[in-house]
Every structure is written in structure tokens, then in C-alpha cells.
Amino acid sequence: MSLLQITGLRGGYAAADEIVKGADLKVEAGEIVALIGPNGAGKSTLLKLIAGLLRPSGGSVRFKEQEIAGLGAPAISRRGLSFVPQERNVFGTMSVAENLEMGGFIDGAHARKRMAELYERFPMLSEKRRAAARTLSGGQRQILAMAIALMNAPDLLLLDEPTAGLSPRAAEELFGTILALNKSGVAILMVEQNALEALSVSARAYVLVQGRPEHEGRAADLADDPTVRDLFLGGKAQPMLRGNGDSSNKGTGDFT
Ligand SMILES: Nc1ncnc2c1ncn2[C@@H]1O[C@H](COP(=O)(O)OP(=O)(O)OP(=O)(O)O)[C@@H](O)[C@H]1O
């Protein structure tokens, strides 16, 4: 049984109730899965449906073999599924330490111990623990946002465009952080605009088009698939960025 198994998931917003139109998707324990696709395909909406920020209108979301569709975000988070939204994911006027405390509100007894572990994992956060979150760089802020989500020791982390707005170098560093996090055992489902980079760090991927996964498979195969390249990656065969260290080929993988 997969860690996360989604079947026929549907849902959207009050004003647009059918954005996700029957999505099937799975994430195995310890896996990194990328969710890519054109602007407006419904990628963020799909993550919000899984995380309980939006209530699905149909379908099933099974996490650790239990149905979670219809549960609220706090209940889902308590079960070990954390979501890092794309925007407003830290409290800017609060210190780094206070932001982490907010992430630990669910489990106060273990919050101190968990904070100490996270300071060890991310020394930058320890150095800046008294600084206001708004003074952090974009990349540092994303690490803080992930650390807040890690306060309740999740098995699965949903990341919505973690590298949005970052310089290529900061994005590269953040992908490294995401890989290291995954190696420590956390499964990751991430929406990314930097499609080639996302595929290069993922085991599998889904291409979402108009609310449905149209293509799925091993990330390396999707990166080479001519249809996927033509539709979503600009058509040109380009070397994978990770591994050959050549960031000069970046560009056509961006959707925005
Ligand atoms: N709060 C909202 N209320 C109504 N419609 C919304 C809301 N948020 C998003 N939408 C609509 O849902 C559709 C899918 O948006 P979504 O953000 O999920 O797409 P996406 O694939 O993540 O694209 P992007 O890369 O642009 O973020 C879009 O047509 C968008 O306008």
C-alpha cells in the first residue's frame, strides 16, 4: 500500500468548483514525486485538496491506509502530512524561533526537542533564531517555511513551488536541501515551475493538464519524453541540470 493514494479526486473553490477533475496519484514512502504542468492546470488546488485546506467534492485520499478526504488541515497535519504553501508561509514580523513554535503548536510537549533537532539540521535557522522572518533571504525563508512544516515530524511533505522567486543559485541550493531532507526519510510531493530541475531530483512525476494527470512515470523518462518536452518543457532535449552541474541550460523548463 502506498503512503499516499489518491483516486478520482475532484474539487475546487466556491466560485470554480471543478478545478481538479478526477485525479489519480500516489506517493510511496520515502519517495520524491514532482507535479508539473502549465499555469492554471490545478496543481496548487490539488495540493490544497490533499492537505485539507479545500474540501474535496469527490474521490478518495488515503494516507497511511486511512481515508483523510474531508478531514480538516489540523487533523491531517496531526497524522503526519504537512503542507508548505507557496506564499505567506512564514510570519514576517515574528522571529525565526517564534515561527517554529507556531509549527509546534500541535504537539507542545515535543516542540522544544524538535526545535533543537531542526536547529541542528539547519544551522542558519539557529544563527538567526532571534531575527524577524522578514529579514531572511528568499531561500532562507523557504527553509524556515519547510522547518515550520517539519515541526510535527511528518512522513509526507507537500511543497508548493518551493523555488518560486528564487535566483537560479538559491533554487539549486534549495533543491539540495530538499534532497537531503528526503534522504532523512521524508517523502515529498512538490509542485514546481522549474520542471527540469524538479524532474532531476524526483523519482517519479505527474504532468497535470486541466485538472487531470495526463502523463505519469519515472521522472527521467518524462524528462526525455518528446510529447512532454514539446508540450511543457519547450521541446529541446537538454541535459539534466543535476549531475552535470551545468546551470547555463536552464530556462525552457520554466512555466512562468
Ligand atoms: N481562490 C480561488 N478561487 C477561485 N478560483 C481559483 C482560486 N485559486 C485558484 N483558482 C483558479 O483555479 C485554477 C487553477 O489554479 P491553480 O493555482 O491550482 O493552478 P496551478 O496549476 O497551480 O497554476 P500556477 O502555476 O499558475 O499556480 C485557475 O483557473 C485559478 O484561476
Automatic annotation (TrEMBL):
Keyword ATP-binding appears in the UniProt entry: yes
Region ranges (Disordered): 237-256
Record-linked CDD domains: ABC_TM1139_LivF_branched
Family matches, as InterPro entries: AAA+_ATPase (IPR003593), ABC_transporter-like_ATP-bd (IPR003439), BCAA_Transport_ATP-bd_LivF (IPR052156), P-loop_NTPase (IPR027417)
SMART domains referenced in this protein's UniProt entry, alphabetically: AAA
MF terms (GO), sorted A to Z: ATP binding; ATP hydrolysis activity; branched-chain amino acid transmembrane transporter activity
Domain of life: Bacteria
Keywords: Amino-acid transport, ATP-binding, Nucleotide-binding, Transport
Biased composition range(s): Polar residues: 245-256
Any single biological process term in GO: L-amino acid transport
Domain ABC transporter: 4-235
Gene3D superfamilies noted in UniProt: P-loop containing nucleotide triphosphate hydrolases
Family statement drawn from the similarity comment of this UniProt entry: Belongs to the ABC transporter superfamily.
PANTHER family, per the entry: HIGH-AFFINITY BRANCHED-CHAIN AMINO ACID TRANSPORT ATP-BINDING PROTEIN LIVF
Protein name: ABC transporter ATP-binding protein
Higher taxonomy: Bacteria, Pseudomonadati, Pseudomonadota, Alphaproteobacteria, Hyphomicrobiales
